[in-house]
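pinned: reference chain
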Amino acid sequence: MPSLPLVVALSGLSSTGKSTIASHLPIIFPPPFYGLTILHVDDFYKPQTELPYREGLLDWDSAQSLDWPRLEDAVTRWRDGVSIKEGKVNPQPQFQQDATAVAGHVTKEQRGDGITQALLEQLQAGAPTPAPVRGLQRILILDGFLLFTPSVPAAFRSLLDLKILLRAPYADAKRRRESRSGYVTMEGWWEDPPGYFDKVVWPNYVEENRGFFVDGDVEGRIDDKMCEKEGVKVWGGETDGLAQTLMWVSGEIRKIVKENRF
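pinned: its structure tokens
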């Protein structure tokens, strides 16, 4: 029986290291046994003229800002074996963070704290080798800020095999977000206006993800029963560095591939 395609949703608060983690996964799960594709949800924004507002500010961090039908079509076609590049599912990125890492080509400066070549080789060696009869294991990594919360269409959520939520303390996430120089968009260049994190980013994150935490406290304890019910794996929030996060995320992928639970 051929390997089933695996869709991994890597979601969470802005500036928690999602793109950095995603960019290292092709190194850990390389050919010829794996075919790993990264799809950045930031490439699926609606036109700027159609974005909602919050607190008088243009809201790039709301589920209503994304073109869900187009994203759902991209994931569905990938599942059906259409190359995202060849099939032109997403021919032109709309929203790119300045100086992001390119998948599979990560410079030393882009590795993040504690992510060394030795660690990558260790994690690569630990990746399970699919049985020859199963052939290539195709994996799609969705890198996005909201991927399986209540405002996301149920039809899209049903396409996800592994749901991972990364988090960071408020202060750390705010510092990282506000240190960014800006973003390239289809319409030009975007820089967060003053107060954007507190008025838009953080409130959206809390409203969408509070159900995964006890008493709705997103910096508190994980609600294990709710997360189990929704099939969500949660990591981070204290002092976890990117190296520990990468080890955990790759471990969750290894487990589901090895057990074929999707």
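why pinned: Strands lie at 6-12, 34-40, 53-54, 57-58, 95-97, 137-143, 162-167, 183-185, 188-190, 232-236. The radius of gyration is 18 Å.
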